[in-house]
Amino acid sequence: MGVGRESGKAIFVPYTIEGELVSAEIVREKKQFAEAELVNVREPSPDRVQPQCPYFGRCGGCAYQHINYEHQLAIKWRQVRDVLQRIGRLKDIPMRPIIPSPEQYGYRNRITVHARQGVVGFFRRDSNRLIDIEHCPISHQEVNRALADLRAENVRDGHYTLRASSGRRVFSQTNDAVADALHNLVNQLIPPDQGLLIDAYCGAGFFAKRLLDKFERVIGIDWDKFAIKAAKEKATVKETYIAGDVDLELERMGSLASTFQREKTTLIVDPPATGLTAKTREAIVDLAPATLIYVSCNPATLARDLKELQNKFTINSVTPLDMFPQTAEIEVTVHLQATSFAN
Known about the structure:
The protein is of the alpha/beta class and 343 residues long. It has helices at 69-86, 141-152, 176-189, 206-210, 225-232, 246-251, 254-259, 278-287, 299-309; strands at 2-6, 9-13, 21-29, 33-43, 110-116, 119-123, 130-132, 158-163, 196-200, 217-222, 239-243, 265-269, 291-296, 313-321, 331-338.
């Protein structure tokens, strides 16, 4: 949201851009701040563009379609830096340039729509009411064809996940091109001559299977037994996949990491938006792998976790990736090194 001030109080206004002069109507007032709705733009920013979606502003999905893409990237880069400074209390953050998405529209390989009383679509912004959606511009053509097919049926009330492919229904990244860029980035961050990779929150083995050639042994951990079952299929003798709690399994990895030498041990964590639990952070500190790569979809919980980890690890780089163009969501990859192994 854009931020204006009246008598010192912050006024948050959605669908605005910094530097614009707008008229807005306050709709919710709190003690420390107020929320407003945009009435009109009196002096637009040069970065303002026409949204490509007819539902923009009513649908709760996208927040940035009114902003040109280069400026979206600048906003997200600052978003990551600022939250790491504010919540993580981090200084001199080694920020790298943001990795953009090759496609700004038509990139989503899956969506979840909801059906209720004949309406098929997404939730309205700030509401549990549905807005009827015929076409989602940020989704693949195959996804929109599946949406059209679903809408042609007499569907029951419920939730429906529509995919561009008919693969296994386990977690996967939503933007294929940026997922490839994420893998390439992580591959570059891992030093040569590695012994052991521990891939925590591994899903069906997104990192583990792509990085096999760099390690003598790979262990994947995830609580989702269906994802682990998928990972085990066609697994090589170098691969082990464990269904269980990440914190408990990491505690058991200490002796194994010592066998492979900790300076040749890499840990990748790619947790859900809630971030790492306190026990998982403790287990990581105790394990003390030479290389730690943290992939996050929530800068706020990432900042909280880095604040706790920085006593044992040095942050080498922070790289945002725009996995979700037109939305306020952002993916971040942080490369850390155990202080005891730092040069």
